[in-house]
Amino acid sequence: MTVIAVVNCNTSTTMTETIAAGARAVALPDTRILPLTPNWGVASAEGWFDSFLSAASVLDLLQNLDQPVDGVVMAGFGEHGREGARELLDVPVVDITEAAALYSLVLGRRFAVVTTLARAAGQIEDSLRTAGLLDRCAGVFATGLGVLDLELDPATTEQAFIDASRQAMAAGAEVICLGCAGMTGLDTRMTDRLGIPVVDGVSCAVALVESLAHRRLTTSKSGTYAAPLPKLRTLR
User: Pairing state of beta strands 31-36 and 71-75?
Assistant: First the structure.
C-alpha cells in the first residue's frame, strides 16, 4: 500500500476534508490518503505574509509526522514551503502548483492559472518561475473570490472560474489550471463548458506521487535539497 500525506496549507478542517475527498477520488485502489491540517497558522492563505506563516506551520507539521508516508502532496497553490519540505523529507514531495503546470505542458502549448484573489498572482508566478515553468504560462487570472468563499456557493464559484477562464483563453491559454485546492469535480464541468482541458492540481499531484513511489524514486539529496544542517531551532 502507498500512503500519501495530503497537506492543507491552512487551518480550515472543512477545506482539508474537501481536498482529501478529491484526492481519494483519483487515487489508485492500493493508495491510502492521509489528510493533514496544520495545528497553527492561518485560516486561509491569501498574500505573502499568510503564505510564509503557512509554510512554517506546514513544515512544522511535516517535521513531526507520527507515521511513515510514501510521499507528500502540498495542497496550497502558489504557497511557500515546497523547497523546504524537499530538504526535510526522504520521500517525494509534489506541490499542486507544479503538478498542474506539468500536466498542462503535455496537453497544450500554453496554459493559464485561474485563481482566487488578484494578490495571489505574484506568488503563483514566482512558484512557476522557480520550477522552470513560467515561460509556458499565458497568465494568472483572478476570480475575485476569497479562498473560504469557494465553498459557500458552488454555482457562483463555478461561474466565476468560467468567466476568468474565458479571459485566459482570449490571452492564448489552451489549458486551464485551477489555482486553488479543494475544487473536486470543477475541472470536469469546466472542461465540458469551455471545450479545452482544465486540470486540478490535487489530482495531478496525487498521480505524480503515486508514480514516483511505485518506481521508488524520490528527491535527490545531492546538492540543492540536501537535508537541513543540524542546529538549534527554537519554536516560540
Answer: unpaired
Instruction: Answer whether 42's CB lies under 8 Å from 54's CB.
Output: yes
Tell me which of 3.30.450.20, 3.40.50.12500, 3.40.190.10, 2.20.25.10 is the CATH number of domain 2-95+203-214.
Answer: 3.40.50.12500
| Pair 20, 181: CB distance under 8 Å | no
Per-residue pLDDT tens listing for the chain (236 residues): 999 999 999 999 999 999 999 999 999 999 999 999 999 999 999 999 999 999 999 999 999 999 999 999 999 999 999 999 999 999 999 999 999 999 999 999 999 999 999 999 999 999 999 999 999 999 999 999 888 777 778 889 999 999 999 999 999 999 999 999 978 789 999 999 999 999 999 999 999 999 999 999 999 999 999 999 999 988 76
Q: Is the overall model pTM greater than 0.85, yes or no?
A: yes
State the Cα–Cα distance between residues 119 and 150, nearest whole angstrom. Answer: 16
Give dist(CA 197, CA 60) in Å, integer: 36
Grid coordinates 500519501 are at which residue? 4
Query: How do beta strands 93-95 and 111-115 pair?
Result: unpaired
Sheet holding 175-178, edge to edge: 137-142, 111-115, 175-178, 198-200
Cell of 44: 486561509
